[in-house]
Design brief:
CATH architecture of the largest domain: 3-Layer(aba) Sandwich
CATH topology of the largest domain: Rossmann fold
Largest sheet: 5 strands, antiparallel
Strand order of the largest sheet: 1-5-4-3-2
CATH class of the largest domain: Alpha Beta
Shape: globular
Number of helices: 18
Radius of gyration: 23 Å
Oligomer: single chain
Helix content: 40-55%
């Protein structure tokens, strides 16, 4: 096992940002830009365990390449357990996907809630049932109809003030939270943030490591989760352990090469909990909420409710770059229940699609997304 004395490295050392006490002292090294020594090159930007002034190369925690050092897995599990303790709730929105399954196994809530579009082949119902049985958790499910979804859309659009094409995701969350409220639950945990922090979306797995790291850091400064607004409207407190401030700081320091490995997103998250969760779930491919809940069928139904003539006419008459018929359908409701789109302020980026103020990557009003980098 190779050892290097920390004071022999041409690096600048600074205390780890977590501020937490650890058995070993963790330092983050920034290589002197004029030094090309192999040791400095290898250790640049990594967090290393140091005891007595000696850095153990085998103890590289963040930035490891090749086989995953199990220390990072243990740290991740411990950090997440701490985050869960700080963000406990009465129940959980349980999809049976990786994120909510990890949360369920760590938090052991008394009840889980799962929703799906009636008559669809919703995988969430299958996997969430397996998790609930393994944990002996009470499991409440509800299936909503297309008619119920269409009827509740104005209320959801009014709450979120958006005509984003991702609204079918919000429908699923709304119905699950409504079931929780009906069941007397006052607080709910969600898996929000895991996909964003650990590269859970397919497009993120295609980014080069440095670009991925930059993207996640920028995203963490400007993200938005609809469960918060929907929960507030329904009188339910939303708890999001993956978005715990201390856990976010920790996750942001993990190398992007551990988040995506061999094209698999959330690799380090999966690896850290593979001894706790069944393989069919821990290595389950990521599915958007709308797929898992079967609500993709709504896209077809809504698109059929707008004619080609109506769509072409709206694109000429309305100063919005509608993506498709479904986008126009949602805007019509938005226009009725919310009204005029608020234009970007002087200090905001103006959305090229609708003119509203937008974040770095995404417009919360119309759903337009900028190129990633």
């Amino acid at each position: 096992m190779s050892k290097i004395r920390a004071d022999t490295l041409c690096v600048i050392a600074s205390p780890d940002k977590s501020g937490r006490s650890n058995p070993a002292r963790f330092l983050t090294y920034a290589r002197n830009k004029d030094c090309h020594a192999p040791a400095c090159q290898a250790l640049a930007g990594r967090s290393l365990a140091m005891t007595g002034g000696v850095v153990d190369q085998a103890d590289v925690i963040i930035g490891a390449k090749g086989p995953v050092n199990m220390d990072i897995c243990e740290q991740l599990k411990n950090k997440f357990k701490e985050a869960v303790e700080r963000n406990r709730a009465d129940g959980i929105l349980l999809s049976g996907g990786l994120d909510t399954s990890i949360l369920a196994f760590v938090a052991r809530p008394s009840v889980g809630f799962t929703v799906a579009l009636k008559g669809s082949l919703a995988s969430d119902l299958v996997y969430s049932e397996k998790i609930a049985k393994l944990l002996g958790m009470q499991h409440k499910k509800v299936e909503f109809t297309t008619e119920e979804a269409l009827a509740i859309l104005p209320e959801i659009i009014g709450i979120l003030k958006t005509f984003d094409l991702a609204l079918p995701n919000d429908l699923s969350i709304y119905f699950a939270l409504k079931l929780a409220r009906k069941s007397g639950i006052s607080s709910i945990m969600t898996g929000d943030g895991a996909d964003e922090l650990f590269a859970g979306y397919s497009y993120m797995t295609e980014l080069p490591p440095k670009d991925l790291e930059r993207y996640i850091r920028r995203l963490s400064q400007n993200w938005h989760f609809s469960a918060n607004e929907l929960g507030k409207a329904l009188g339910i407190e939303i708890k999001q352990p993956f978005l715990d401030e201390d856990f976010i700081r920790f996750a942001l320091e993990i190398s992007p090469e551990l988040k995506v490995k061999d094209g698999v997103g959330k690799y380090i998250l999966r690896k850290s909990f593979e001894d706790l969760i069944p393989a069919e779930i821990v290595w389950r491919k990521k599915e958007p909420i709308e797929y898992g809940s079967g609500s993709t069928k709504l896209h077809e139904v809504i698109n059929s409710m707008v004619t080609d003539k109506e769509f072409q006419s709206a694109r000429k008459e309305v100063d919005i770059k509608f993506i498709n018929k479904e986008h126009l359908f949602y805007w019509r409701i938005y226009n009725q229940v919310v009204g005029k789109i608020p234009k970007a302020r002087d200090d905001e980026i103006s959305c090229p699609c609708c003119g509203a103020g937008m974040g770095i990557y995404h417009c919360p009003t119309c759903g337009f997304s900028n190129p990633l980098l």
